[in-house]
Amino acid sequence: MDSNALKAFLTIVDQGSFSEAAETLHLTQPAISKRLASLENRLGEKLIDRSHREIRLTDAGARLLPHARRILDEIHNARLALSPGSGELEGELQIIASHHIGLHHLPNWLRRFKREYPQVAINLQFMESDTAYEQMRKRNAELAFVTLSDSMAPGFTVFAQWPDPMVFVTGAEHPLAQARQPGLSELAQYPALLPDTTTATYRVVSRLFLEANLPLSPQMPTNYLETLKMMTSVGLGWSVLPRRMVDDSLRTLDVGHPVSRVLGGIGLAGRQLGNSARALLAIVQEEESL
After folding, report:
1. Per 3-state DSSP, what percentage of the chain is helix, strand, and coil (rounded to 5)?
2. Model confidence pLDDT, tens digit, residues 92-132
3. Calpha distance 290→286 (Å, rounded)
4. Per-residue pLDDT tens digits for 63-102
5. CA distance 168 to 241
6. In terms of C-beta density within 10 A (0-12 exposed, 13-18 middle, 19 or more buried), how is residue 262 classed?
7. Concatenated DSSP letters for 196-224?
8. If you compute the radius of gyration of the chain from its CA atoms, what whole number of angstroms results?
9. What are the strands, taking DSSP E only, across 53-128?
């Protein structure tokens, strides 16, 4: 089975269009259509329904999809097994990072990585953790540094993880800032500035209020923690932010309920990491253990 034809099939599915798939693979649209047609002829099955405006998999295409990904993963693993095991690292390393990790952790890692491995070109994408998981499933990066979640889908391997302690905070002029030890019942009287309901942070905070039988009034949700910090600092409500983000613009609230989340580096199970990815992980593990 032609690996190039399989790659064309997967890229069409992942990009959702022939034109975008062609652009991704640096091919013409007729060329990528030809590769798909060749695969369909070899298998004797139509894989993509072309009668709709949107790309839709046929039953045969849906059955082939996981096998196609595994086949290309094994080809990737075979190439790594045959590549030199030592020598100077070079080439491109594709990674994804959440915005928070990109601002508060990544600079130290990359500064050291570029000093030690100057021949490796970093291809870096920033996105929310949930989006990063999806991009990893599409093989659009080798490593992703994200907030780990109990609801993380199977198929991922956690290569590194570290705790990220969080604290309840409010602005210096907010009424809660004057309270010595405000409880959850006091917080329930004011708007909560929290990330989206799908995030691990929201689920942890929501569970606390649910168990206390108290209402939670989230306002203007955003997954950009720097934006939440700004809105909190000007007194629009209270929030829960990583301890390392707290500065003079915020006041920590001792509510008696410690909150933490776990950050980490993930890859795809069954898809081996290259030397550059392993070198970066070694730096991450060392830096985050300090």
Report:
1. 45, 20, 35
2. 999 999 999 999 999 999 999 999 999 999 999 999 888 89
3. 7
4. 999 999 999 999 999 988 887 765 678 889 999 999 999 9
5. 7
6. middle
7. -TTSHHHHHHHHHHHHTT----B-S--S-
8. 23
9. 56-57, 91-97, 120-126
Q: Where are the beta strands (DSSP E) in the chain?
A: 48-49, 56-57, 91-97, 120-126, 143-147, 156-171, 192-193, 238-242, 250-253, 259-268
* Residue 51: count of CB within 10 angstroms of its CB: 5
Query: How many of the other CB atoms lie within 10 Å of CB of 5?
Result: 21
pLDDT of 153: 77
| Dist. CA 56–CA 230, nearest whole Å | 43
Asked if 104 and 151 count as a contact pair (C-beta separation under 8 A), the reply is no
Query: Alpha-carbon dihedral of residues 35, 40, 46, 51, nearest 10 degrees?
Result: 20
Tokens at 113, concatenated: 């990585």
Partners of 161 in the β-ladder: 264
Amino acid at 99: H
pLDDT value at 39 more than 90: yes
Q: Which residue has the tokens 């955003």?
A: 222
**Residue 52's pLDDT is what?**
73
Residues 214-252 have pLDDT tens digits of 999 888 778 889 999 999 999 999 999 999 999 999 999
Residue 167's contacts (CB-CB under 8 Å, 6 or more residues apart) are: 240, 241, 242, 243, 246, 252, 253, 259
Scored b (16 or more CB within 10 A) or e, 57-85 reads beeebeebbeebbebbbeebeeeeeeeee
